[in-house]
Amino acid sequence: MARINLLDTRTTSFGDLIGNGKIYRVPPFQRDYSWNEENWDDLWQDIVVLHTNPDSSHYMGALVLQSSSTSDKEFTIIDGQQRLATLSIIAIAVIEKIQKLVEREDQKEANQERQEILKRTYLSDRDPRSLRYSSKLLLNENNNDFYQSNLINLRKPLNSRSLSKSNQLLWQAFEYFFNKLEEDLKDVVQSGEKLAEFLTDVVAQRLLFIQINVEDELNAYTVFETLNARGIELSSTDLLKNYLFSLFQGPDDLQEAQRQWRRIINTVQMEKFPEFLRYYLSLQQTRVRRERLFKVVREFVKDSQQAFDLLDQLEYYSSLFIALGNSNDEFWRDTPENQPYIRELELFRVKQAYPTLFTAYQKFSSDNFTRLLKLVSVLSFRYTVVSGLNPNELETLYNKVAISITKGEITNPKQVFDNLRSVYVSDEKFLQDFSLLSISTKGQKKKLVRYILWQLEMDAAERPDINEDGFTIEHILPESPTDDWRQNFTDTQIEDMVYRLGNLTPLEPHLNRQVGNKLYPSKQATYQQSIYKLTQNILAEEWTPNTLATRQRHLAKRAIHIWRSDFPL
């Protein structure tokens, strides 16, 4: 593990970093400059506060740097390029303001000297041959040429619209801060001395970072997963990408890898990639922890061919990964029989089975994959939704099953079930837990309640064509009961029982409006007008905690054969 302790971290300022003769490089494949006006404005407002409060300072977050193996004067910026680039642009804007004073013959010689000192301190030294400035900060392959040629040398682009999006942002950042200096610091921009003081004392010294030095990318990955901090610009996904790209030698291979990576990320989305990668790696190893993803990849991907193999596999599974979380995805267009089970996994928020489903989709027949989806849905409903058991045990077993399917040791859903028997909740426990099940009808949980009532109603009515969206959820004991309801229910019982499944029933919208918060006898008469069997069967003379519990036990007995494995126990 990286030596992440007080010996490796320190508080530092922008001036300490950039003014110490060192060079900071952004890896060539790091993401492009992406800050926009919202980010610039947030930073600028913080700087203005510093300017008006001389004793204050502002924390800019963690800065992760990798030491060079060949020079103690060079560092790779693992995380922090957006912030460092933007602060450098502010320095350029200040220097350009001083240049305007020089052009107006305002203390020309003194301001020329100030300008030269500030350039050497915060930007770079000047090459005596070309008289061009080369930066202490080197950006990625898409931004560095523009940064060096135009920004560092204070040259306006001939046509900013022809620039790439990220280079447009770099130029717009310069224009933003150049204008903000004029708008918000009128007293400062009239004097070269005050401009130099603003850059040196405010921007350079009172914007503070926590500098974290790491020895290699693996340690940087550990830092990211340990911090998991707000303000981290570079994700662990970027770090993985940079490592893979570093394995490609020729430009053609690199371009193909970049295209393939973009296709994967466009499908999966950046924020979901670590989760996706973890599920894929679980086809080969059990219980791959998120913080070990980079280490696992480094262990088995060591050259360009292995990197291409990994990208091929990730691209293959990427569409399935997204489709497993969306029953309406085009992926299921030719297999609509899978959609109900995918929707159930969405409702149950179950992802532990993804590695098993990944490899089964590749190895099983279409019919067997559908049977497996049903099994996973039933098992998840019993284990997770109703019994609320520990998902970690479920994930471990699914990962073992996934590895066995990949190796050809498991070839059909029956064998999957045989390996998952230990987490298939027994009928006895399911009956007990369902009899006490309570689910709020507010927020996202409402869809789950509607689904359960719909399944129970289809079974009771023996009609598979009932519209799930055609009914409202009626609370027999109302959510906001009148005082008359308290004759049968205490306040504690109301709180405990209002969302019990035995207290819920499907009801037509107009009938639901009609019953409102009325007392049970009035409601019960209206229930007999309903088309829904579950509701018609509410025949108790009074509604009490006991009658509610009795009804829920009857529903639980019905649920046992609705959510049941197709395979013999």
Q: What's this model, at a glance?
A:
By secondary structure, this protein is of the alpha/beta class. It has 3 domains: 9-227, no CATH class; 237-429, no CATH class; 433-562, no CATH class. It has 26 helices and 8 strands.
Please specify the SSE layout and strand pairing.
Blueprint: E1 9-13, H1 14-18, E2 23-25, H2 37-52, E3 58-67, E4 74-79, H3 81-103, H4 108-122, E5 137-138, H5 144-152, H6 165-184, H7 186-189, H8 192-206, E6 207-214, H9 217-227, H10 236-246, H11 251-268, H12 273-281, H13 293-300, H14 304-323, H15 339-348, H16 354-363, H17 366-386, H18 391-407, H19 413-420, H20 427-434, H21 445-461, E7 472-475, H22 491-497, E8 504-507, H23 509-515, H24 520-527, H25 533-536, H26 545-562
Parallel strand pairs: 2-4, 2-5, 3-6
Antiparallel strand pairs: 1-6, 3-4, 7-8
